[in-house]
Write a structure and sequence with these properties.
Helix content is 45%, strand content 10%. The protein contains six helices and five strands. The N terminus is likely disordered. Bound molecules: zinc ion. Zinc ion binds next to helix 3 and helix 4.
Length: 166
């Protein structure tokens, strides 16, 4: 039986590797009720990251550090925020569609901007990274389209937050 390796590293340690921003606080995924979703490294994952509900019905985010490494820090945070959005929007048990993926992308950008974890220069880096990606036949838009969508989410957020109160 092949033993499945599962590394549980702190995300801050992972992000510190290859990053000039070693002092960055670790990304945390917090649900509306205040619970934190654990983020676990799994080198067998065939994707950058994924949102899951484990066999004990606990929410978890897994990521592959090898796939994550080439991305700029802001884009790594975006990946975590995207998977966190699936957890926050309770989309994990539903089949992912272009709609749920687009919603999660927008929610992720909103959360990162709202919490000051990214600024518009950071969004630009995410957009640059995403524009180089390929889509898939299932639910992801081709990279350039996904990048445009993400840029649109950030602009919409800025427009909303610049509206006068009342
Ligand atoms: Zn997704």
């Amino acid at each position: 039986m092949v033993r499945r390796y599962l590394w549980i590293w702190s995300v801050s340690a992972i992000l510190a590797v290859g990053s000039a921003c070693a002092a960055d606080p670790a990304y945390r995924c917090v649900l509306d009720d205040g619970r934190t979703v654990p983020i676990v490294a799994d080198a067998t994952l065939q994707n950058v990251a994924a949102a899951r509900i484990d066999r004990n019905a606990n929410r978890v985010i897994v990521f592959n550090p090898v796939y994550m490494a080439p991305f700029q820090v802001e884009t790594r945070w975006f990946w975590f925020a995207h998977e966190c959005a699936h957890q926050q929007l309770d989309q994990v048990s539903t089949a992912y569609t272009a709609q749920t993926e687009g919603d999660a992308d927008c929610y992720a950008i909103d959360q990162l901007l709202a919490h000051g974890q990214i600024d518009l220069a950071g969004v630009k880096k995410v957009v640059d990274d995403m524009s180089k990606m390929e889509g898939d036949a299932k639910h992801y838009l081709p990279g350039p389209q996904r990048a445009d969508h993400i840029a649109g989410c950030a602009l919409a957020y800025e427009r909303r937050s610049n509206q006068p109160d009342g």
